[in-house]
Amino acid sequence: MRHKCRLKLTNFTIISTDKFITMGTIYWQLNDIWSTPSWSTIDSVGQWKLSHYNAIKEYYDLTKWGRIAIHHNNEIIEADWIPNTNHNNLFPIEFELICYTIWSFIPTYREILNISIKHYIQCPINILNKSLNDLNKLCHFNYRNGRIIQIIIRNNLYSIISDRNLLLLDKPIQIKIWPKNAGKTLQIKSIKLLNIMNNLLKIQKMAPFLTNHIYEIIIESKSPELFINLDIDPRIDVEFWFSINGFHLINENEKIIHLYISGNKTISIDVLKHYLWIESLATLNMKEL
Description:
Blueprint: E1 4-5, E2 21-22, H1 23-30, E3 40-42, E4 48-50, H2 53-60, E5 67-73, E6 76-82, E7 94-101, E8 104-113, E9 125-131, H3 132-138, E10 147-154, E11 159-160, E12 166-168, E13 187-193, H4 200-203, E14 213-220, E15 225-232, E16 240-242, E17 247-249, E18 254-261, H5 269-275, E19 276-279, H6 281-286
Antiparallel strand pairs: 1-2, 3-4, 5-6, 6-9, 7-8, 7-10, 10-11, 10-12, 13-14, 14-18, 15-17, 15-19, 16-18
C-alpha cells in the first residue's frame, strides 16, 4: 500500500502541490542525516523496514573488487575499502579521490591515493582520513556549500564508479544557494519500450518479478543533481520497479534507467511521460520548504 501524506510547517501552512507527496519524497524533506541514497518506510505495526533499491544493492550487489564505505564523523571524513571475501584474490590497483560541488560536473580536484593493498586480505583498510578543513583546502572548495567527494576503485581493466562511493559533505539544510538550473533542467530525455528479443533476461535480473514489459528511460540534467527519486503516479495503479533509484548525476549529465512493469498491463509512452515523477534534493528546495 502506498502511503500519501502532506507536510505542515511550524506556522501551520500546508504545503501546496499539484500531486501526491509519497513517503519517499517526504523522507528527503525531513532527513538531513543519512548520506546514502536510501530511506525507510514504516509498516503497519510501526516497525522500521528497509525498502530502498540502494539499500538492497549495498548488501546484495557487492562487486568482486569490494566496496567503499565513506562517512562523516565529528568533522572528520573517513573512507574504508571493504574487500569481497569471496574473491579475496582480487584487489584494487589504486583508489582515486575526486572532489565536486553542486555547481559543475567538472571536478574541483582529483588525486590518486597511494594505498598499499596486501593480497588475500579480509579486513577493511582505511584509505582516507581527513578533517573538513583539510578537505576544503585540498579540494579547492573555498568553503562553498554543496561540497561532494567521491572515491573510485581502479584495477587493470576499468574504474568502479558508484553512488555508494559518494558523500555530500553538507547537510541539505546548510545549502542556502543553488545553481540557477538546479532542479529545473532535471527531465526525461527519452523513453522507449524494449523489444522482447533484446536480451531482456539479462536486463531484468535485478527486478523482483519477471516481465516482458521493460522500458528504457534516460534521465538528463544540465546541472548536477543529488538524490534523484523516480516514482509513478499511484493513480496509474501498476506494480513497478526501477533498476536504479535514489541516484545522483554528479560525474555525468544523464543516466539510463530500466523500468519494469509487472503483469500484462502496459503503459503508453505518452502516458508514462506524463505520470512519471522525478524528484531531487534541488526540486524539493524549489518547493520553498
